[in-house]
Amino acid sequence: MNDPSASLSPALERLAFEIPKVELHLHLEGAIPLETLFSLIQRAGTEPGINSVGDLRKGLAYTDFGHFIEVWTWKNTFIRKEEDFDEIAYKVLLDLAKQNVKYVEMFYSPGDFWRQGLSVSGITESILRGRERANRDTGILSGLIVDLIRDHGPEIGARRLDEVEPYLGKGLIGIGLGGSEQTFPADPYAPIYREARKRGFRLTAHAGEAAGAESIWTVIKKLGVERIGHGLRAFEDPGLVFYLAEKQIPLEMCVTSNVKTGACPKAAAHPIGDYVQRGLSVTVNSDDPVMFGSSITEEYLFLAQQLGFTMEDLKRLSLNGISASFLTKAEKEEMRSLFEAEWQEILARPFVSTH
Ligand SMILES: [Zn+2]
């Protein structure tokens, strides 16, 4: 890695845009483009103070993590129909395809919409329709991961597993565990994860974001996850960092998110560079890009501009996204050769610094 100030290039922004990407930690409801969300608000009726996309951008600002959850919930109240998810998925995927994202594994939280009378199956089917349309129009590939929210408890989690099982293999690929990690430990979800594995779901869980290294150990040892959502605080236990490197358990890292939510006090203190140097399987992700005023492209740009990552480092991270994904071996190989070809072209440009 370089001195952060030395590798800046005026063409870097364009390059960050063109980097072939995989996104493995993205919440569909946190990625709705502002224009789409604004049209949903208009369709739902009037909302005091929100008369333009600019107002909406300001309305999504938050002061701390508690307020972030409030704003997140407020935004979701404008999704009134199951069909809205078709448009949301389509627009989110189009936005990603424009940034040269070839494949995305998206979380969705269907349990957040029962107040609006939306069913889990209706939401899922609607997203899968939008996903198909986006694939037809842009070629982008995607898989859905249902988020079992810790705060809702294991009984609802078990029910959710049954509700989404019919979609397994039809676009739905796995389960994740979000919500208030600091309040609700993952242990009670062990039987659900065991059952999910048996049924063919792929397994990930948020851990080490709002809680420490112990929480990461729990999802590894008790839930048997294949990947860690965030894993930010692994550094609190050097033995865990060693274990993650040895076992190559991928981390779905989301730097902007960690800084914006305060999980990491400042960007310069983020351990992502250290984890890469220690050989951990690190991937780059945007989490809730619209809520954080970010994008997957800006995540790569941030690593280059603020943390001194070289283009070779970024290439490694983009390829890690393929290895860490839930694609099949053959799909991974196909995608890897596509990425290698695009990277070859990017790195051959005379203005790209690769040292
Ligand atoms: Zn997340």
Count of helical stretches: 15
Q: In one word, what is the shape?
A: globular
Strand order of the largest sheet: 1-2-3-4-5-6-7-8
Strand residues, percent = 5-15%
The separation of the N and C termini measures: 8 Å
Ligands (ions, cofactors included)? zinc ion
- Given as residue ranges, the uncertain stretches (5+ residues, pLDDT < 50) are 2-8
For this entry, give a set of tags.
355 residues, alpha/beta, TIM Barrel, 8 strands, disordered N terminus, binds zinc ion
Chain-wise SSE layout:
Layout: H1 12-18, E1 21-27, H2 34-44, H3 53-59, H4 65-76, H5 84-98, E2 101-108, H6 120-138, E3 141-149, H7 154-164, E4 172-178, H8 190-199, E5 202-207, H9 213-221, E6 227-230, H10 238-247, E7 251-253, H11 255-261, H12 272-277, E8 282-284, H13 296-306, H14 311-323, H15 329-347
Parallel strand pairs: 1-2, 2-3, 3-4, 4-5, 5-6, 6-7, 7-8
The protein binds zinc ion (ZN).
